[in-house]
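MODEL INPUT / OUTPUT PAIR
PAIR INDEX: 1
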Amino acid sequence: MEFDLIWLALGIAAAGFFIGYGLINFNNPNAKSFSEIFEEEEHELITENDVHDFMGISKEDAKYLIKEHPDVPHIVINNKVYYPRAKLREWLENPGE
């Protein structure tokens, strides 16, 4: 009986959060989605071995990414290449800039 009330309270609290957040951003097209609320990607780095999965390209293409596109946002630390997730996503969304 005790756990039933706890689950009920958690469900009501979660529903209140989602309904409240939806009402706040009802007519705001620039509002973050629910998945973006919980993501912490501002400073997240992607390794050179994992960038192919993020971009949806083959591993072979990812190896030549910097050579063919030197303007791709990346940093090199101890001879390892890392890609900032947010800047890479922006680079992919705005090709040619």
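PAIR INDEX: 2
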Amino acid sequence: MLRSEVMDYYRRGGERDRLADGQGPLEYLRTWDVLTRVLPSAPAEVLDVGGATGVYAGPLAAAGYRVHVVDPVPEHVAEAASRPGVTAEVGDARELPAPDRSADAVMLLGPLYHLLDRAQRVSAWREAGRVVRPGGVVVAAMISRWASMFDGFVHAYYDDPTFQGLVEGVLVGGVHDNVDPEKSFFTSAYFHHPEEVAGEVSDAGLVVERVVAVEGPLWQAGPRLAEILADPERTELMLDMLRRVEEEPSLLGASSHFLAVARHP
């Protein structure tokens, strides 16, 4: 299952408010926007792997989808299962507790962050491909290779002398090796180079349909971002503009996260 420091991070509530503060609302809005355009129509069967507390599963169930969350953190599973229309169980992305070809869509919006070895990430993709029906969609989220480098300036993390060492490790090999629970620099994770995605997906027997930037560079806008998100008209304008450039390859690395949309051939 999860490495001990990762499990501790989430059991301390690391996921509970992440999408509600700072650049989190932009990540949520953009991810939701992409999901509404790539998922099959309700009432499709959606397997939300690494779905945490059900922050996406709940709205999907409210929209008429049949959603089942699989997550390795028992506290997440209990909270997700309390949402109307959502079922949930403890499980691992590399060995899903689901029959072959039992879902119309699979979401991997968290697992790939914490699978530090390439073979494990391919295994998660392969399991998603086993579970999804032919022609079905798999949507996965990844953190950009350069997210921590930029985030250190946004949140003044470089004031801590240990942070630059974490960044250096990411730049060299993608591994954000934070095993210290006292540090607020996320937890142990893998940060993807955009050019890695196609190879991992292909090795799992799936086909990449598109890779899209989630936030683009706007996640670094600081207080100005909160002002935009507080204004419905400006928010809609921002989302429209981001849709127009979401597949622009040169913006993928500037985004904190990107999504890969793959299909079962």
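PAIR 2 NOTE: The mean pLDDT is 93.
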